[in-house]
Amino acid sequence: MAKFNRLNFRQNIIDSKYILLLPLIAAYELWKINRTSSLSNHESQLFNYYLLINACIVLLAYRFNVFLGSFTLFNAGLFVILYYQQTFSIPFFSIGFLSFILIFNLITLKLLWILPVKYSRCFTFAEFAIVFQTIYYYVVSICLFNWQYWIVNDGSSMMLVAQKFDTICLICYSTLAIHWMIAQFVSKLDPIIYLISLPLSLYVWLYHFLHIEPLYWFVTFFSSNQIRIYLLLFWFSVVLLTLTFVYIHTFLTVDRQTTTATRKIFHLAISIVYITGIKYDLLLLNFASKLILFIFIFIEIIRLSRIPVIVSIINTVFERFRDEKDSGILTLTHIYLLIGCSLPLWLCNDSTNHRLLLSSGILSIGIGDTIASIVGITFGSRRQRWPNSSKTYIGTFGFFLSHFLSFFLLDYYYYNNLFNTNQLQLVIKVLIISIITCLMETFTKHVDNLLLPLIEYFLIRILF
Asked: Could you tell me if residue 105 is inside a domain?
């Protein structure tokens, strides 16, 4: 009988149900595509679903201490059923593909025993599961769909810009992971060497796969149209203002206490960036979100190193804005904020026609959660708190009202028209989404930056 594994997770909540959240979204996407789209889209979405199911198998094997032989047989059986039913016609779905998935799963399962032990109490299992499934799906799918590009390096194989962006991101994350593993095994490695070698390795690999000088390629792409230039300048201004606020609050106002409302400046900044990106340049926003995530992870690795001056500055800033749920040695809420706002963008298959769907993260944590914190801290009191929660009634109402109104305002911003509020059915749908999301924000014990966008995404996908 499988034994439940309770190792090293924050608050130790029995939350294995969240393993099924992403596959549930993928299953609905698959069902919808099967009804409305072509066979090729159906195959592609079924492949995505298969990868998420595999990630679930790995997580369940870890969570319940399943014997590796049973885990391998179940995985192989799932693939054989799909393969011999001729579900897939993609060439690389073969015994070689099955072997790759099984080996990758076994290696991943071994790594799962290391991370929660090394970074004890840094995250709940639900947070760990969602991030793991996202990374697993992204790495495996990009590796397999770009297999020709990894083998053929003569420059004759031209890829679409989006595929090339995914390959660039995969190179960045792979190089970072390899350097991190080397640093773990070579204890005497000077962190300065790590800090210098990573950018140099990245430059060499990008030059090899792009077949062109990387900086020149990036400048050429970013300056390819005028709107993109203006958008980048606007984003740079938002980032500069945010960093200025961080500097002033950290180093010039030392005696001022950092509250939850103070940290919401980051929610405001990311909301501005994502709303404008969704409206004007989805391709650039998609790439930028993955690149900034890489930078955040790199900064966190540097923060855990022993570089005196750099680590001191980073730790000063992080300790100033550290959330109460950042209980371990890792600081993750800012990374969760970025992932939460980006997941709808990464999940949606028809992004151009579903801008409100892409704004799931902005609606839930960029607007609703931000207003809830500000209203709750300003007008709430201890006597007005929900049972078994630190959230107040007035804060929850602020979430509900701001979330409800934001649907109509964003629809007007994206499409220059408002929902027809005379149609009671549409208003009821928005009310349902707003009520469920605000109640989840009130009672969840996990980092809401990660869970709320997925719940919001699923609700919008079903009701609209």
From this structure: yes
